[in-house]
Amino acid sequence: MNPIFVSCPGMCTAAGFNASASCAAMMAGISGVKEANLWDWESGSLINAARVELPQWWFGVPTLATLAASAIDESMKRARVADPEAVPVLLCIAEPSRPGRLDTIEADMFDELQARLGHALHPLSRLVALGQAGGVVALEHARAILADGSAPHCMVAGVDSYLDQTTLDVFMQRRRVMTPANSNGFIPGEASAAVLLSASENGPSLQVMGLGTGHETATIDSDEPLQGKGLEQVIRRALSDAGIEIYDTQYRMTDLNGEHYKFKESTLVQPRLLHRSHEALFDLWHPIEWLGEIGAAIVPCALGLQLYASTRDMAPGPTCLGFFGTDSGERGAYVARYSGGV
């Protein structure tokens, strides 16, 4: 594959208003989760959530645009981009089938985002509405943009929020949210994250070596037996694209969120990929533990965390396998290697 390099992360999460604060909190095990003004109708009590303490009270697309603009602007400034309008922004958002998804998000997001950034977006900017796996698809789009010379840089960003009572009522009816009466559920969260992509290395960066995308038919809402074939397929594709074996990776970055489904899927896939003992610890990192379920923001957040840990010699090794999945069945995986520089 044509090499692409990740640098200059930006974030706005419940753990911190920028990438450094958010990543430092995650590495220290400091959670942004606390009791929120969200109601569990079954137990009659408030639930825990990871809310970003924004200074305003509006909701909907304006809130998402404010979150996204914060991460994008931070990344642009860290990279000292002279002309932000020359950088295509691929913004990942919730998939269309997500309960409570904002009806006007496609129509309004870029207008709201441009108003907050204070500049127009590049004509190649687009929304990637594929939830958690959307970041990997966005990386594929970014690779194509950089390969054909359409732009010298590209930005992959994500923004999402589960902190809406109507949305959570649907998930709670399906017993998907962690509440006093249900431990097999996720903690709702919200966040934005962004990373800058380039065709050449420029300072501390990650090289995205391989990408894989695909689909799982046995979704969390399906009656079909889960075998993890979709996740296995995308991991194999990412490793093949990178030209390495799974034994050449030292740890994993995932969107495990506390639900049994994703843990089961990952557990089913691992023995089919590992035919001998993995010499490294093969640690499993899951940022959602500290940030709550952040949906479409997870891939740029994971890349940002990997870069932060690598530059401080806190990662188990240079090469990480990341894999992610959306409720509707989309799956994505990447292999990223730290290329040096502190």
TrEMBL record:
A molecular function (GO) term: acyltransferase activity
Signal peptide start-end: 1-21
Transmembrane segments: none
InterPro entries per record: Thiolase-like (IPR016039)
Coiled-coil intervals: none
UniProt keywords, alphabetically: Signal
Organism: Caballeronia novacaledonica
Protein's UniProt name: 3-oxoacyl-(Acyl carrier protein) synthase
